[in-house]
C-alpha cells in the first residue's frame, strides 16, 4: 500500500549498482472505464518537472528546443518494478535500459567534453 | 470489438484538483491517491480529499495547533478522473466516507 | 580519539573559513563608521548560523538527506522550485562577490586594477575544484585561512576599550545615522547567516556519511566553530574601530582601509591584509561553486560527489563550471566588489525566510528526524533571528536607497 503523492512522487531512483540516478518527476496512471486506475509508468525529465510548475512554459520550452536545437526533448518512462522502503524513503531500482536513457546527457557531456580536458579522467587522490 | 477506451492521466495533474459533484458544487481537493499492489499492477484504491488549504497540505497547521483536519475518502470508482483537470464525483456526496486525521 | 580529531578539524575549518569578503567588508565598514556599536550584529548572526549548522548536520546524520533533498521530498517540486531558485540566485551573487573580493586583494597587492585578475582568479577556483578532492579543499581552506587570525592578534595588541566592546555586544540604537547603521546591521547578518554555509555543511555531512554517533561532535563543532569564527570577525571590527575610525577612514576607501593592520603589525600588516582577503574569498568561492552543483544535483537526484573524477560526474562538474563562469560577469563589467558584496548580503537576508521556513518544517518532522526533532529553543531562536533580520532589511534597504 502506498500514497502516490507522498511516497512515490519525487522519490530517489537508483541504478543497478545502488547509485543515485534521478528522481520520480511524474507518475502516469492508466484509466479505463469500469476498472481501477493503475500506475502505468514513472517519468523522469526536466520538462516533466517544469510542467508541474507551469504547463504553458513547459510546452513552450519543448517547442523552442525542438525548433532551435532540432532535439525532441522527451522524458524517460519506465515501469514501477523493483522498489523497497529504506527508512523514510522508498527507493526504486531502474533497469539497465532505463539507466542508459537516463544517463544520455551525462554520457554525452562526459565523452564529448569532460574527457577531452586535462585531468578529467584522473582518479582523485583521497 | 473495440478496446475499452484507455487514457493516460498524470498523478501530478490530479493532486490539488478540485473535485465537483455533477451539480457543479465543489466537494474538496485531491490531496492524496492511495494505491495497492495487485499482482504486477499497482491499482488505485482511494482518493483522499481535503479542503486543500495550503497550510494543511503542508501539515503545518495540525502540528502547530494540534487541530485535526477533516479528510474525505472516496473509493476509486466514486471519482471519474478521465479528465484530470475536472475530476467529477460519480456518486452522491453522502456516500463518501469522512475521516479525521 | 577519532572523534576528537574530527571535532578539532571541524572547528579549524570553521575558524579558518569564517572570514570572506562579506564578513570582512561589513565588519570594516561598521567598525570605521560606528566603532564597536555593531558587534551585537555579528553575535546575533553567529547564534543564528550556529543553530542552522547544527540543524542541518543533525538532518544529515539522522535522515541521510541534505537540506535540499529533504525539502523536495517533503514538499514536492512545485513548492521546492522557489527555495531552489532563490538559493541559486543568492549563491551566484555571493560567489560573484567573492571573485570580486579575491581580485580586489590582488589589486591591493600589485596596484593593478582588479578587473585584470578576475579571469585568472576564476580559472584558479575552477582548477582547484576540477583537480582536488572534497577533503583536500576543506583542509587547505582551514589551514590557509588561519592567516585571518592576524586580525585577532592585531586586536589584542591594540588593546581596545573593553567596556565599549561590552556595550557594543548588546543591541542598541545608534547615536547618529540610523539608516546606515541599520543597513550595515543587515549586511552583517547577511554575511553571517549565509545559506551556502549550512547547505554546504549538510552536503558535506551526507558525503561523509554521518551517523547518529556524529550528533554530539556536530553540536560541538557548530557551537565552538562558529563562536571562534565570530571572534575573528569581531576582531576585524575592533581593529577598524581603533585604526580607521579615529582617522576618519571609511570602509569603502579600501586602499587606505587595507593599512589597518600596518599599525599593529608593522610592514607585515599590509601583506597579511590582502592575503587574508584573498584566501578567505577563494575558500568561500570554492564552497559556493560546489554548493550550486550540490543543490542542483540533489534536487534532480543525480549522483553527486566531489570525490569522483569529473568524467564520472560530468553534470556535477558542469554545475560549478557554469556557476563560476556566471559569477565573473559583474566584476568583469567593473562593478565595485564592495558594493556588489553589500548588495548580495541584503538580498541574502530578504531571501532567508523562503529558505529557512521549509527547513524548519522538516526539522520538526519525526518522519525525517525520528526522536531528534528540534527543541522549542532551537525553533524559537531560529525563527526570531530570521524574522528580525528580514524586518530590519525591509525597513533598512529602502531607507538606505533613499539616503543615497
Features:
heterotrimer; B: 101 residues; mainly beta; SH3 type barrels; five-stranded antiparallel β-sheet; two-stranded antiparallel sheet; 14% helix; C: 404 residues; mainly alpha; Amino acid/polyamine transporter I; 18 helices
Describe the structure.
The complex is a heterotrimer of chains A (126), B (101) and C (404). By secondary structure, chain A is α+β, with helices and mostly antiparallel strands. Helices cover 35% and strands 28% of the residues of chain A. Chain A has a single domain, classed as SH3 type barrels. Chain A is built from 5 helices and 8 strands. In chain A, strand 4 (26-31) and strand 5 (38-44) form a beta hairpin. In chain A, helix 2 (46-53) runs antiparallel to helix 3. Chain A is globular and about 60 Å long. Chain B is mainly β and 101 residues long. Chain B has a single domain (11-100), classed as Roll (SH3 type barrels), CATH 2.30.30.240. Helix content of chain B is 14%, strand content 44%. Chain B has helices at residues 11-14, 54-57, 60-65, and strands at residues 7-10, 18-20, 26-38, 41-50, 70-75, 79-80, 88-89, 97-100. Chain B has a 5-stranded antiparallel β-sheet with strand order 2-3-4-5-8, with no helix packed on it. Chain B has a two-stranded antiparallel sheet with strand order 6-7. The radius of gyration of chain B is 15 Å and the shape is globular. The model of chain B has no long low-confidence stretch (mean pLDDT 81). Chain C has 404 residues and is an all-alpha fold. Chain C is globular and about 55 Å long. The termini of chain C are far apart. The mean pLDDT of chain C is 90. At the A-C interface, strand 3, helix 2 and helix 5 of A face helix 4, helix 5 and helix 15 of C.
